[in-house]
Structures are given as structure tokens and as C-alpha cells.
Specification:
Elements (H helix, E strand, L loop, with lengths): L7 H40 L10 H22 L6 H29 L3 H74 L89 H25 L8 E4 L2 E4 L7 H5 L3 E4 L4 E4 L15 E2 L7 H10 L10 H8 L11
Antiparallel strand pairs: 1-2, 3-4, 3-5
Length: about 425
């Protein structure tokens, strides 16, 4: 017979004691968890005394706690079959079954309470129907009023633009007439020093002696500090000539015996010189804004390719030959008749030629520059028709090409 090992029993007892301490600590932890949950439930009930625990979400917490306790007891019984925990396990299982049996009608009641009542649905539908009818009744007149205001705004804006164009046209005519008047007065003074200027009409110093000219009325629909969004009315300089009625030319000079009449020669500078009208003038003028944009687009394209040449237009003045050194496709060269434009084939025509380089020369339609007093109206009509702004030219560059600052300073003030 083997001698029993004196250390086996004490070791087994110690192992069992350690296991029991572990389960006691686990039980204490579970009790602490239950106490914490109960404290949470109690705090919620104190904050809301009307809460019904049987019909709240705390039923879920209670079921989870009991299920967890059943699982813990089953594990303990499996580990220690001879323990006295089995009766407690059966009791807890019965409690869990009772809770789950009582939980089903509670859940059904909760789901039933969450469903809206048919009367409530009918009342909501009635309220929504009334609201929809009211919105539709208000929406129709609101849309009609919006369309009416939009049309009135468009008409007022068009009238304001037309009035501003009229003011700009009058201002240009006034500036040109005064400049021509001053040039003619200087010319008359040089050719006939004894010539006298009628007092009360005009003098050589641009002094307005007669009745002062009233300022132009403000544009329709604009305030004194605010102009039309499309065109700004230019400032009107002090007039040099006026009377009971306005006329294009200056008043007649006092001495009619001068060898040269005021209209014998014009001393206007080149940009303001009136060129002869082109046949089909109105058609020609309508295409001028688009031609200027095409010239600017060609210049931009050839500059990007690095193949832009020079104008090379030559003019002979006596024994002197002047050659234009501006870059090709220059708007000022077009305005000085260095080049023309074929709007049929969209090509530049060098000055002096009657057709472009296209093979179909017989059908070329030549467009030449001409100065128009209604130039701003022509450009505005081209913009409104959608014929300008399609060639990827910067808006500021396009406006400077159409309205040079030296000729239209009022647009850049």
C-alpha cells in the first residue's frame, strides 16, 4: 500500500478555498451591479414619480438581471454539484418565467398605445388638407404678382437704359459741337484777325454768356446718387453755344466776307472726324459690335499661338511715308480704316482691297467702320439680342474695345 502524500489533501482544500473566494467575489460584484441598477431605477422614479415601472423600459433591465442571475447560478451548480445553491436556482427560474409571461401582454399594450388612433389619423389628414388648400390659394396670386413685378421691372429698366442712351448721345453731340466750334473760331481768328465775335452767343474762351443750359433730367427710375445698371449718364460740360433752339453747326460768324467759310475745312482731330457713310449704312452699323469682338478674338488666338504680326498699313503724306506698327487685328486700326472685315467669311480685309482672301470673293460682304451718334444704343441692342459675349473675351477688355476710354470717358468715371 502506497504511503499517502500528506500534501495532497491540503492542496485540494486550498484550491477549493480559492475557487470559493473567487465565486464569493463574483457574487459580491453581481450584487454591487444589481445595487447600482436598482439605484438608477430608483433615481429615475424619484425624478418622474408618474413613471409606471411595469410599462417602461426598466422591465427589460429587470429581465436581463434575472437572466444573468440564472446563468450565474447554473454555472455555479455545474461546478459544485453538492452545493446547496440548486433550490435557489429553481426559485430564480420560476421568477424569470413569471416575469416573461407577464411581459408579453405589457409589450402588446405598449405597441397598441404607440399606434395612432383612426380618429387621430383622420384629424391629421383633415388639417393637412385644409393647409394644402390654403397654400394653393395663396400661391396662385403670389406667382401672378411676382410675374407682374418682374415685367414692370423689365420695362422700367429698358426705359432707364433708353433714357441714359439718349443722354449719352446728346452729351457726345454737345462735346463734338463745342470742339468743332472752338476749332472753327481759332481758324477764323487766324485767317481774319479783324473778325468780331457776336457777344451773347459764344466767344473763343468757351464762356457761356447767354442763358445757362439746364442740367439734364435724371434717368427714369434712378436716384441722383444711383444710375442705371447698364449705362451711366455722362457729365455734361459747360456749353459754348446755345440759343432758342439747338442746331448741329455753330452759329454764323459776323463777318461773312471772309475768304473761307466755317464749313470750308474741318479741324476735328482724327478720332472725332466724321467719315463718309458706307452703302447700306444701317446694316453695316448693326454688325460693327460683332466685328470688333471678332477682331479681338482673332488677336487673342494669334497671340496665344505666337504668330501675331503687325498692321503694316502705309499712308503717304507728301514725301513722307508712314507705316503703322501696331499689332495685327487691332481695333483702332479697324476704326482708322487700315483694315476692313468680311462678315460673310469672317476674315480681315487689308485696307485698299475690296474682298478677303477667301476663294468665294464675289460674295464677300465688306464691313467698314463708321462713327455713329447712337453707338451706345447699337451696342446695347447687340447685347440684348445675345450677339455679343460669345467669344471668350474678358468682359472689361470687350467693353474697352467697344467704348475706348478717350472717346467715352463718362463710362469709366
Amino acid at each position: 500500500m502506497d504511503t499517502p502524500n500528506p500534501f495532497v489533501i491540503p492542496f485540494a482544500i486550498a484550491q477549493d478555498l480559492r475557487d470559493r473566494r473567487y465565486w464569493v467575489s463574483q457574487l459580491q460584484a453581481e450584487m454591487d451591479l444589481k445595487s447600482a441598477v436598482r439605484a438608477i431605477v430608483l433615481r429615475a422614479l424619484l425624478n418622474n414619480p408618474q413613471m409606471d415601472l411595469a410599462e417602461s423600459r426598466f422591465v427589460e433591465i429587470k429581465v436581463l438581471l434575472v437572466r444573468h442571475e440564472v446563468a450565474w447560478l447554473e454555472e455555479y451548480v455545474d461546478r459544485y454539484p453538492r452545493s446547496n445553491i440548486a433550490p435557489r436556482l429553481e426559485t430564480v427560474k420560476q421568477v424569470l418565467a413569471a416575469i416573461e409571461a407577464a411581459r408579453e401582454p405589457i409589450d402588446q399594450n405598449i405597441m397598441a398605445n404607440q399606434q395612432p388612433h383612426p380618429r387621430q389619423i383622420q384629424a391629421q389628414l383633415q388639417a393637412l388638407g385644409d393647409e394644402i388648400l390654403e397654400i394653393r390659394e395663396r400661391l396662385g396670386p403670389a406667382m401672378q404678382e411676382s410675374n407682374r413685378l418682374r415685367m414692370e421691372g423689365s420695362n422700367l429698366n429698358a426705359r432707364a437704359i433708353g433714357n441714359d442712351d439718349y443722354i449719352s448721345s446728346l452729351a457726345q453731340r454737345l462735346r463734338r459741337a463745342e470742339f468743332t466750334q472752338q476749332q472753327l473760331l481759332d481758324q477764323a481768328a487766324r485767317t481774319s484777325p479783324q473778325m468780331t465775335v457776336p457777344v451773347g452767343r459764344y466767344d473763343s474762351s468757351h464762356g457761356a454768356i447767354g442763358r445757362p443750359m439746364p442740367p439734364p433730367p435724371p434717368a427714369y427710375g434712378t436716384s441722383p446718387g444711383r444710375s442705371s445698371p447698364f449705362l451711366q449718364p455722362p457729365p455734361i460740360p459747360a456749353p459754348a453755344s446755345y440759343g432758342s433752339s439747338f442746331s448741329r453747326g455753330p452759329p454764323p460768324l459776323a463777318d461773312s466776307g471772309s475768304p473761307t467759310t466755317p464749313r470750308a475745312s474741318s479741324a476735328n482731330p482724327k478720332p472725332l472726324q466724321q467719315k463718309k457713310k458706307t452703302p447700306g449704312s444701317k446694316d453695316n452699323a448693326d454688325y460693327l459690335p460683332m466685328v470688333i469682338e471678332s477682331i479681338m478674338a482673332n488677336r487673342k488666338r494669334f497671340e496665344g499661338q505666337g504668330t501675331l504680326g503687325v498692321c503694316n498699313h502705309t499712308e503717304t503724306h507728301g514725301n513722307r511715308v508712314e507705316k503703322c506698327s501696331r499689332p495685327g487685328f487691332d481695333v483702332q486700326c479697324f476704326q482708322e480704316d487700315h483694315i476692313h472685315f468680311c462678315r460673310k467669311h469672317m476674315r480681315v480685309i487689308p485696307g485698299g482691297l475690296l474682298a478677303c482672301s477667301h476663294a468665294d470673293k464675289a460674295n464677300c460682304i465688306v464691313t467698314s467702320w463708321e462713327e455713329r451718334e447712337d453707338w451706345e444704343i447699337i451696342v446695347a441692342a447687340a447685347f440684348q439680342a445675345g450677339n455679343l459675349g460669345r467669344k471668350e473675351i474678358d468682359k472689361d477688355d470687350l467693353m474697352q474695345g467697344l467704348f475706348p476710354p478717350q472717346l467715352f470717358p463718362h463710362r469709366y468715371m
